[in-house]
Amino acid sequence: DAGVIQSPRHEVTEMGQEVTLRCKPISGHDYLFWYRQTMMRGLELLIYFNNNVPIDDSGMPEDRFSAKMPNASFSTLKIQPSEPRDSAVYFCASSLGGSSKETQYFGPGTRLLVL
Amino acid sequence: KNEVEQSPQNLTAQEGEFITINCSYSVGISALHWLQQHPGGGIVSLFMLSSGKKKHGRLIATINIQEKHSSLHITASHPRDSAVYICAVCSGGSNYKLTFGKGTLLTVNP
Fold this sequence. Notes:
heterodimer; A: mainly beta; 7-stranded mixed β-sheet; 4-stranded antiparallel β-sheet; globular; B: mainly beta; 5-stranded antiparallel β-sheet; 11 strands
């Protein structure tokens, strides 16, 4: 398997622009997670899905952030409008089952810079 | 106070040394994960622990549920072990949310 695939790998945009990050989980994995990593706060869970349904979005910072999972093989994280403080690395991860003991497989991340 | 505290924040060692990274948490958990993040940014899951000890090659992870503490040990360290090591806990129940420590930056010099 190719692992978790994210695109783009790097994104530079200007404040106020819309940004869309994409993720393809490992085939057969029922859970998909979006994380954000910054120097100040480390890794934080933004939202996670089970069988394409959002389960916990309490980590989504504000209404500017939205995430969708239209099917089992694709998810998007959208920021509209983007702000400089959104600059971070955004990781997508997937896991096979619904247990805290399941291994999560991380994508390579999208490095976002908002100017 | 962060729910998950790691120490040290930074660690420099000479090749061959025994390494210990510590993780303390303040909430009840169902599982604790150790992750490795390489300089290129990729994150790999190393261990999942709910009790006792696990070993994989030169890496050993232990957990003491009563003391809310876990350690990651690396024996015979090598420069390729240089990475950020991240501890994450899951409080369990019906929520599968991981809470992360800030990570420990390990540099192993040849």
